[in-house]
Amino acid sequence: MGALWRSDSAPPVSARKAATAVQLEPRRQSHAVRWAVGIILMFVLVAGVALLVYELRTAYFQSTELSRYAAQLTYQVESGSSDAIIYPGAGPFDQRMGYSRLPTFIERLQSRGFEVLQQSQFSPALMRYAERGFFPPFDEKAQTGVAIEDCRGTPFYTVRNPRQRYPSFDAIPPLVVGSLLFIEDRKLLAGEPAEANPAVDWPRFVKAALSQAGKYVAMQDQSAGGSTLATQLEKYRHSPDGITHAPAEKLRQMVSASVRAYQGGPQTLEARQNIVRDYLNSVPLSAAPGHGEVHGLADGLRIWYGADFATTNRLLDPQRSADASLAERGLALRQVLSLMIAQRRPSYYLSRGRAELAELTDSHLRLLASGGVLDADLRDAALAQQATYRDWQTDPNLQLVDTDKGISMARARLASLLNLSYYQLDRLDLDARASLNSDLQQEVSLYLEQLADPPSPKP
Known about the structure:
Helix content: 40-55%
Largest sheet: 3 strands, mixed
Radius of gyration: 33 Å
Distance between the termini: 174 Å
Structural class: mainly alpha
Shape: flat
Strand order of the largest sheet: 4-3-7
Order of helices and strands: HHEHHEHEEHHHHHEEHHHHHHHHEH
């Protein structure tokens, strides 16, 4: 018979319970830690969303920080050559006005005996900003062109591009402002928040980003545009070829436009109004025979339609055109609106695509009326009109050429020094002083003309 033995290797029941209790305690602790971490993360997420919503509504943080940062982006004009300056890149306006060519101009002039007396010195913050590729936020001119003075400082040759402009935001008829904003940037002049960043329309930006992503994965053929008027200004002025080549270029435009907007302080209403003014004064509108590049609404009306800028503005301001007919006002509106639309593809719409532009103008007139920008009577009057383009054969764009010998000599000398054509010279942002005395030169020219054409003898 066998015997039953109790093995000592099995722990007592009380010992097993104790071990189980010891094993369960760390599990409870880790579970509690996970709960705590989850609560903290949830709190951080809620706080982050709340801050984001607050920022989208008030623009408090970006207005505070960007205005503080923009205040450091300064420059001073000091004696001698600058050792703290970065010249602009390949932007269309930078090239046309000569800013990108400054190193070449300086080198050519120095090789001919000229010297640099004064030049801009960037602040350290502005140097770092420009080195990162952003566009320096200087006060850009509404009109540029060559201006030559005689030896006494009297102007005797001046070219201004564009020829006409809006001097201030208040000079723009409200109907023109409303039409532009309805088409391009409806929230730009919203009263609240006063610190709004005009460079970013977040819903529009997100839509454009999703559209761009869809384009990359072949879900759609075209991507939607996310450019505000502020970023459009940066694009056609300073981006290479005036277009957005890549998402990084769009980011550069947005950052540059944001910093420029807050340069005057946290509140941006005046900056936003200036964006409207500057856009209307400088928007590219293709090129025309006998004139070249066309910029701004004023020159666009004159060159493409033969319309007078002052008359057009009067017709679009009800307070100044009470005696005007609806047909006159409708035609003026149609001309202005068509140029606003044409800026999307100006070389196409203002030449081969004129019929398509007319259809788009009709569509936008209906949209403007449904949106409350204009009344039904003016809409119908504009729809009934047809914008007639200038006939280059019967009404050419003639550029008056001054035959004054002194002016001809001064222009020829400048063009030779800078290795430019007369067309390029007249579009520079350049002031020059000649050694000529303009009054004396005119007297000499008149005397020589009289010698060449003596008076007829009396009978």
